[in-house]
What does this fold into?
Amino acid sequence: LALTYLSVCAPSSRADVSFQVFYDALGDSGQWVQIDGYGYAWQPNVEDPDWSPYTEGHWVYTDYGWTWVSDEPWGWATYHYGRWLNIDDQGWFWIPGYRWAPAWVSWRYGGGYCGWAPLPPRRGGAGGNTGFDAQVDINLHIGAGAYRFCPEHSLGERSLRHVILNRSGNDAILAHTANVTDIRTSNVAGDTPYVRGPVLAAVNAGAEHPVQQLHLQRTTQAGPGTPPTGTINGNTLQVYAPPVARDPNSAARPGVVAGTLTQVHLNRGDDPGRPLQSTSHGKASPSSPPEGTPIPRPAQSPAPAVAVPPHPLAPHTRPDPSERHPFLISSRSGDSSQYGACCASLESRRRRKSPLPFFAAGSPVPSESLSPLFE
It folds into this structure.
């Protein structure tokens, strides 16, 4: 089967696919459910209680910015189309989307750390073509617990899982970082968003394994020897990225729908008392350490994270004051009240006290056109 290539700059004549390509390809690796207000969603078969999206793989820098290369066989879909949300007592779910991007994440950077968090889906109303900026934590209510951090000099590691720090230190690490998210999109269907974030030169300075810089080449078909998750040949990254049509009359449906989630309570990682779970199979790892626990410090070489005394902000990575917002706390003041007050405000505005029943399949499922995503 030959490979068909798309220009990342201006896709022309192409054979668009529907959401059916996701429904058919992912079914054996997880389960499809219906989530009230979101439509069909997919949860991977994951047993690791510390798993979260964008942890099994590595980052490269392409023509279109920070690009995630997944080690998971279904990563070609779930990290480049659509968004992820976390539901209390159930875990992470992927909501399909129409627009391909190098990654859909929020970035934080500073004090020797890099961190990223999956962008949650938007609901109801326009705005999908406006991109995302440094206010995304506020606008989409992304809390500290949703981030995965690693030492700045380790971001180029080919397997990030062993250098990602335990989330128990996230609240403290957040105080040393600023949000540097900058995802540029356009109104042109098929255009590839540009994903900016940490400055590549700063990240690679002193890194034992610098972040690779590659040319991005999109394919519309996955041929023999080309895994859907992507293949690096020389200085080129080939990725399976078929364009997805927006068809309100599409009959696309998952072959099997395991059930329906109603009255869901989203977990945005902003409450240390409610740590994020990977799936309903695994117990969540704590998102906040016991009082007095020191935060982990970036290691001098790739190694499992360990807890050592905190370190001051490195002068060359100190955030620009112009980028400050409620999620950035002064390291000199040591006052976390601003961040805590912000989280408390967000939590009080969205908290819903209803239970989370899981019903059997059979209730009507909204059509693909009701998807809350605009990318």
Summary: The chain has a mean pLDDT of 76. Residues 66 and 195 are 6 Å apart (CA to CA). The longest strand covers residues 30-35.
